[in-house]
Structures are given as C-alpha cells and as structure tokens.
Amino acid sequence: xxxxxxxxxxxxxxxxxxxxxxxxxxxxxxxxxxxxxxxxxxxxxxxxxxxxxxxxxxxxxxxxxxxxxxxxxxxxxxxxxxxxxxxxxxxxxxxxx
Length: 97
What we know:
It is built from three helices and five strands, in the order ααβββββα. The protein is α+β, with helices and mostly antiparallel strands and 97 residues long. It has two domains: 1-42; 43-97, HU Protein, Chain A (Irregular), CATH 4.10.520.
C-alpha cells in the first residue's frame, strides 16, 4: 500500500500538531516547489533521503508489442531518484539513521 498525499497530511496534523488546512497547504506547497524545481532542470537534494534529478532520454528505436511494428520513440526527459546510503540501509533493515 502506498503512502498517499492525504496520509502525509494526516501524519503532519498528528506529528506537528497542525490543523488540517495548514498541513494541507504545507504539503501542497512543498510538492509545487519540487515540481517547479525539477521542471526548471534543477536537482533536489534532501540530505539523508536522496536526490531527484532530471535526465535526458535520447530518441531511440522501439517496438509496439501488440503489433510488432517498429517505431522511433522521441527524445524525452525523465525524473530519476537516487536514494541516500542511510535511506538504503534503513529500507534494508540495517542500522541507518
């Protein structure tokens, strides 16, 4: 099960003792800052968590699996995430703080 935006808002109301509106505004604003930062091509580095970056994918040859038809897939940008070492350790149940 995924942690959804509404779940993050609920956790903020509990942990930070914020009212629902302030927690919602905080999460929405943070997400908007992250979107605009990535859209401008900048990276987001959160110490102890990881780094979000935008990578260029070049035009490449592809195939439609349903028809077998060859196609040229256009160049595009993708968002990538690389976790920090401490997050990897924590996810793997090791002593990462």
